[in-house]
Amino acid sequence: MNVIDVQNRSNYTISRGLIRRAVREVLLGENISEIPTIVVVEDEEMINLHTQFSGLSDTTDVLAFADEDEEGYLGDVIVNAAQAEREAKSRGLSFENEFIRYAIHGTLHLCGYKDNNQTNQNQMRNLEDLYLKVANID
Fold first, then answer.
1. How many CB atoms lie within 10 A of CB 46?
2. Burial of 62 (0-12, 13-18, 19+ CB in 10 A)
3. How much is the pLDDT for 68?
4. Is domain 5-134 annotated with CATH 3.40.390.30?
5. What is the pLDDT of residues 55-103, one digit of tens each?
6. Residue 35 clears pLDDT 90, i.e. is over it
7. When you count CB atoms within 10 A of the terminal residue's CB, does the N or C end of the chain come out lower?
8. Which residues pair with 40 in a beta bridge?
């Protein structure tokens, strides 16, 4: 498997190795050979992307953009580190745990999973929990 590209365009510090490990577990578990790029951003960039691609002018936790044109490339997962920090604080979790959950969530979207109803949301949440555990992330 090729190296998963992690681009940090934020002021947050997050281990690229930790991100790669978790995303790799998802790809292995879902039998996906293509690799994604994980891009770390903050609110301003996420709001711009969310507005541009969904028409919603607020921030969000993660966006996923599939790429079906480039051989071996799954697409981009854009993770909002600022949102992960806020959510982690409100839920009493570590920043790393929440951030990696978002990276896993976005990768699952690229693998074809949807969260458009409660059943699908529960399925994705269970898979997030599984891959956090498999990657040994507390």
1. 23
2. buried
3. 84
4. yes
5. 999 999 999 999 988 889 999 999 999 999 999 999 999 999 999 999 9
6. yes
7. C
8. 8, 79
- For residue 18, give the nearest of 8, 10, 33 by alpha carbon: 8
CB contact at 8 A, 46 and 59: yes
Give SS3 for 138: coil
Confidence of residue 137 (pLDDT cuts 50, 70, 90): confident
Q: How many angstroms separate the CA atoms of 124 and 118, rounded?
A: 10
Q: What is the spatial distance between Cα 85 and Cα 103, in angstroms, rounded to a whole number? A: 14
Contacts of 11 (CB under 8 A, 6+ apart): 42
DSSP line for 84-120 = HHHHHHHHT--HHHHHHHHHHHHHHHHTT---SSHHH
| Bridge partners (DSSP) listed for residue 62 | 79
Give residue 8's pLDDT band: very low, low, confident or very high (50, 70, 90).
very high
- Measured on CA atoms in the order 114, 36, 131, 86, is the torsion positive or negative? negative
